[in-house]
């Protein structure tokens, strides 16, 4: 199989997996090395390298979802209405860990000052850079038969997360990626017609 075919197969394999357990097929150290490689080798606009990542295992992973559950319960209020959310969070907690994706606003400000002509674009490019890190890590996890799903409980948990893990005030939470052993694969995926989603000229 060519490198291109391997890459395409991994792109197909990367799915949102919600039925997870904490019995990973690899060590936690291997997960850390995988994330480190992505941080080093994923591109960023103007080589800004603005994403910041935090990996939570074990009790720290559980604590994140405890915080999320407690925060959302206060917002929702009604126990009966909250049950669906509680069940969903229990699914996240059942995983092996969570990767928190942040964006360093200080780096973005510095880039804006250095290139004022593009100042309004740097926050957009920073989010695109963060998304690339998420995709690279998600796909790399899939290559190890590790399932993952991406959540966005920011900004409602931002303050508690920052306090719990002593996060720099310039780090803005962007997403939370839950990962773990795959207990149940993703279902079939529907695709909108490619011809409605792209155009080709000059062939």
UniProtKB/TrEMBL annotation:
Species assigned in the record: Psychrobacter coccoides
PANTHER family, per database record: FATTY ACID REPRESSION MUTANT PROTEIN 2-RELATED (PTHR43035)
Nitroreductase domain: residues covered: 12-180
Protein name as catalogued: Nitroreductase family protein
CDD domains: Frm2-like
InterPro entries in alphabetical order: Frm2/Hbn1, Nitroreductase, Nitroreductase-like
Transmembrane segments annotated in the record for this chain: none
Pfam family, one: Nitroreductase
């Amino acid at each position: 199989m060519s490198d291109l075919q391997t890459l395409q197969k991994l792109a197909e394999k990367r799915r949102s997996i919600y039925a997870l357990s904490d019995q990973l097929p690899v060590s936690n150290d291997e997960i850390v090395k995988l994330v480190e490689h992505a941080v080093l080798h994923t591109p960023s606009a103007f080589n800004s390298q603005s994403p910041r990542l935090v990996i939570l295992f074990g009790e720290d992973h559980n604590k994140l979802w405890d915080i999320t559950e407690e925060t959302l319960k206060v917002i929702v209020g009604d126990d009966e209405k909250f049950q669906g959310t509680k069940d969903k969070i229990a699914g996240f907690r059942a995983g092996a860990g969570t990767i928190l994706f942040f964006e360093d606003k200080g780096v973005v400000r510095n880039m804006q000052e250095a290139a004022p002509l593009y100042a309004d674009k740097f926050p957009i490019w920073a989010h695109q850079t963060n998304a690339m890190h998420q995709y690279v890590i998600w796909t790399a996890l899939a290559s190890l038969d590790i399932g993952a799903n991406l959540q966005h409980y920011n900004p409602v948990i931002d303050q508690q997360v920052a306090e719990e893990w002593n996060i720099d005030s310039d780090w803005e939470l962007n997403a939370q990626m839950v990962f773990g052993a795959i207990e149940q694969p993703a279902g079939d995926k529907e695709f909108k017609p490619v011809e409605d989603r792209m155009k080709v000229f000059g062939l």
